[in-house]
Amino acid sequence: MKFSANLGFLWTDRPLPDAIRAAHAAGFDAVECHWPYDHDVADVKSALNETGLTMLGLNTARGDVAKGENGLAALVGRDQEARAAIDQALGYAAIIDAPNIHVMCGFAQGPVAHQTFISNLKYACKRAAELGKTILIEPLNHYDAPGYFLKTTCQAIGIIGEVGAKNIRLMFDCYHVQLMEGDVSNRIARLLPFIGHIQFASVPDRSQPDQGELNYAHVFSEIERLGYSAPLGAEYKPKIATDDTLGWLAKYR
Q: Is 181 labeled as catalytic in the residue annotation?
């Protein structure tokens, strides 16, 4: 198995370039992040080149964080900001050779928000195609993100169909899916043709994957059996120093 370190949660005590180096030293095969925009892109690219790691993906900006925003693409009347965030993410990804952009929809409800999200995703897919990038969408659970527009894999698959682009795929986070829908192993098998990236964390506490109600030894074995060989994203929240939580990594590799 191959694994990617999500630096939005891991090694957050150091700048992103140094977190990339820490992930490499720990034996990860790739990295990914949330919002790298406060870090000089040249420094990030240098750390990636130095370590030989690929930055698998990054997120579009959340919006006004002070007001609690968590994405813009489904917010009615905010299309200009949403598309600027998409352009920003694609520009950063182009420089560091990141293949995926997670377009965050934000807190919204209703049919107008749905159409807004579709419209902005079509824009994102068109722009991403020009750069050879893939757009990802990710359902978030209603415990951590109450009111988030995209909640379930079923909703996400419907949206992917409506957008109708070849370069839009599902970000399947086992943690979120288990909390909202369950049946993780079978659901991965059914949705594999739509999946662009898989992430994981323990459930329900979102820590390292050697505890909780999901048996990741089984889940990872099923993913491997299905022939999925891309790095799986470790997007968990360490309760102690990141290096002290990595016993699972040697176990599952």
A: no
* Ordered DSSP codes for 83-143: HHHHHHHHHHHHHHT--EEE--B-B--SHHHHHHHHHHHHHHHHHHHHHT-EEEE----TT
- pLDDT tens readout for residues 215-242: 999 999 999 999 999 999 999 999 999 9
Which one from 32, 69, 130, 138 is the annotated catalytic residue?
138
Give me the catalytic one of 69, 181, 222, 235. 235
Look at residue 3 and give its three-state secondary structure. Answer: strand
CB 231 within 8 A of CB 56: yes
Domain boundaries, the chain: 3-252
3-252: CATH architecture: Alpha-Beta Barrel (3.20)
What's the distance, CA 182 to chain centroid?
19
Assess whether 138 carries a catalytic annotation.
yes
Q: Is the pLDDT of residue 253 over 90?
A: no
Q: Report the alpha-carbon distance of residue 112 to residue 252 in Å, rounded.
A: 44
